[in-house]
Every structure is written in C-alpha cells, then in structure tokens.
From TrEMBL:
GO terms for molecular function: RNA binding. It comes from Clostridium cellulovorans (strain ATCC 35296 / DSM 3052 / OCM 3 / 743B). Transmembrane segments: none annotated. Keywords: Repeat. This is Transcriptional antiterminator, BglG. GO terms for biological process: regulation of DNA-templated transcription.
Length: 278
C-alpha cells in the first residue's frame, strides 16, 4: 500500500496494487513521510472504504478541513451504530455526521445551543437510534471532554435515520418532515377512535415502521401499485371505521393513494386500534 496524499500526520489517502483508494488513519502514520512511500501497516488503526464515488470525494475534502480526531470519533460512533442497529448505513454518513459533530462542537464552544424541535417525536418513533445518539454523546464526552445536550442526540439520530433510507438523495429536512407527519397521522387515528394507542405494542411499532417507509415512498413517488382491488373491497367492508380513518389520512396528505397503499394503511390502523381496545 502506497501513500497517495497526506492530509495530516494521522490521516492519509493510500492506494493498493490494484489502484484502489483508501483513507487510512493511525497515530503518526504520515510523520516524516511523503507521497509515493509505503504505508507502515503496523500504524493503521482505521480504514475507510467508501464505495460511492461522490461520498468518497466529499470525504477527502472534509479531511482537509476537519481535525482527524473528529473523523476518528465519528468512525467509532458509526461502527457502534451499525452493530447496535444491525443495518447498513449509506456511505454519506461518514461525511454528514462528521461535519455535523464538528460544527456542533464549534457551536457548543461558542455557548450556542443547537435545539431540536422534534426531540420528543424522535425519542418516541426512533427509540433504538436515539439510544445510539445518547451513546454518541458519551463517546464525544470521553474523547473531547465536551458534554453536549440531549438535543444533539436527537440531531445525531436524524443523521442515522437518513443514512438508513438507502439514498444520498434524501435530505435531513425530509427525515424531519417524515417525523412530523408520522405524529400527525397518529393524532388522526387517536382522535378518530378516541383512544390512547399502546406505544409498547408490536402493532404500534409495526405501524410506525410502515409509516416511515410509506413517507419515503411518497417522497420518491414510488407508491405500491396493484391491478386487483378485490382485497381492498373486502377490507373496506370488514373494517369500515379503519377505512374511514385511512380516508382522513389521505385527505390530510392531499394526495390520491393507490389501492395497495390504502389497503396496507387500513390494515395497520385496524391492528393498532384493535390491540389497544383489547
């Protein structure tokens, strides 16, 4: 492995014999080194392999502006998130989260608070990711000696959610909008039925998960289609109240849903309200 570019004493861009590029980090890995020299593999602590070209290029640019300790810290947070959430994360998380935490620390040092108006909803709808966000605050305090407020755990959570949505085209604003709309949909259900939903139930968790991906499909204009409305007609007749509630949601969204999407929404509404009533 050969050094292609030096960012600082602890971070380099390297390439292997097949000309594949890697960002490599390690204490003193570039000390008294020059481009073209061999990488001392014994000093390698972290290796970044970003398969998305755009993410890779932006990450290299980020390394020129952000101190390596922030990059290393975010690497640890992301690895922890992958293990705890058992999911793949978009390569852009290495760029977006690192940039966010770097700027969050700068605001903290200036005595400014980066408040998250959706903190309550984030705790409620993304409990697992929020726990990772809280753990990230512990990482930050241990590594940098900065105790950031809980709102930052919420901000980190939004980055993790965004990275799970499988596309670099999703924006943080989309995730925030999804979160608000999920709350609005749940409010329509509770108001229609005059009940308090059991947030600890499996049906509730499945409904929220369905809504998360439903709004992603809606944003991408990729709603599920079907040529057969037989099942919807049966569900409409059997679960009239749930169907009417779904129509209220459709009206709130101000969009004509496909029969398949209407079907799934109605079934989820029936399940979550039925379990609560029982």
């Amino acid at each position: 492995m050969i050094i292609k570019k030096i960012f600082n004493n602890n971070a380099i861009l390297a390439k292997d014999s097949d000309n594949h590029e890697f960002v490599v980090m390690g204490c003193g890995i570039a000390f008294k080194k020059s481009a073209g020299e061999k990488v001392d593999k014994a000093l390698i602590e972290k290796t970044f392999i970003l398969k998305q070209n755009d993410a890779s290029e932006k990450f290299k640019l980020l390394l020129e502006d952000v101190p390596s300790e922030y990059v290393s810290l975010c690497y640890d947070i992301i690895q922890y998130a992958k293990n705890m959430l058992s999911t793949k994360l978009n390569d852009y998380i290495y760029v977006t989260l690192t940039d966010h935490i770097y700027n969050a620390i700068k605001l903290y040092d200036e005595g400014l608070k980066n408040l998250n108006p959706l903190i309550w909803e984030i705790k409620k709808f993304y409990a697992k990711e929020f726990q990772v966000g809280l753990k990230a605050l512990e990482f930050i305090e241990e590594e940098l000696g900065k105790k950031l407020p809980e709102d930052e755990a919420g901000n980190i959570t939004l980055h993790l959610i965004n990275a799970q949505l499988n596309s670099s085209y999703n924006k943080m604003e989309d995730v925030a909008e999804y979160t608000k709309k999920i709350q609005d949909v749940l409010s329509i259900v509770t108001y229609t039925y005059g009940i308090t939903l059991d947030e600890s139930s499996i049906s509730y968790e499945r409904f929220v998960t369905h809504l998360r991906f439903f709004f992603q499909r809606l944003n991408k204009k990729e709603l599920i289609e079907s040529d057969d409305d037989f099942l919807l007609k049966k569900i409409k007749a059997k679960y009239k109240k749930a169907y009417d509630c779904m129509l209220k949601i459709e009206k709130y969204l101000d969009i004509e849903l496909t029969d398949e999407e209407k079907l799934y929404l109605t079934i989820h509404i029936q399940r979550v309200t039925q379990r609560t009533n029982e």
